[in-house]
Amino acid sequence: MNAAEQKVISDVETFGWHVVLVSDDEEGPGFAFTIGLFRNYQHPEVIIFGIPHAVAHAVLNSVGEAVKAGTRLSSGDRKVEFLKDQTCAFVVFPRNSYEAYLGFARWFYKGNEFPALQCVWPDSNGHFPWEAAAAESTRSRQPVPGVVV
User: Fold this and answer.
1) Separation of alpha carbons 149 and 142, rounded Å
2) What is the DSSP letter of 125?
3) What confidence tens digit (pLDDT) does each residue in 113-122 have?
4) How many CA atoms lie within 13 A of 119 on its CB side?
5) Exposure class string for 24-46: b at 16+ Cβ within 10 A, else e
6) Cβ neighbours, 10 Å, residue 111
7) Whole-structure pTM over 0.85, yes or no?
C-alpha cells in the first residue's frame, strides 16, 4: 500500500471520511470528492466541481460533519449551509461516471457499489447549470452528468 492509500484509510478511520482533490487539466475542471461517508455513515459520497481546492475541501468537510451529526442528503435537496451565501443542490452522480471521476473511491470500495451525490452550485444570479439562464462559465466549470442540460 502506498502513502496516498494509507492516508485515505487513516483519515476514514480517524475522521470518518477523506477528501480527494483533483486539479483541473486539459480534460476539464478540477473537482473534489469524499471517501468514507458510505462506509461509516451509510450516506452517499459527495463530489463537487469547479471551485478552488480550499473551498471544495471546506464544503466537503462541512458536508461530512453534517452527515456525521445525522444529516441525510438526497437528490433534489437544496441547502444553504455548505456554500457561503449560496444555495447548493444535490443530484445523483451516475455510476457510469464513477470511473472517470471517482477512481480513488472505487479503489477504496473495490468497485462501484457505493452511492454518490454531486453538490452543484449556482451562478451569481442563482441559476444552476441545467437551467437555461445559467451562465456558460457555471456550466463549463461543473459538468453535471446525472442531469440533462
Assistant:
1) 11
2) T
3) 999 999 999 9
4) 31
5) eeeebebbbbbbbbbbebebbbb
6) 10
7) yes
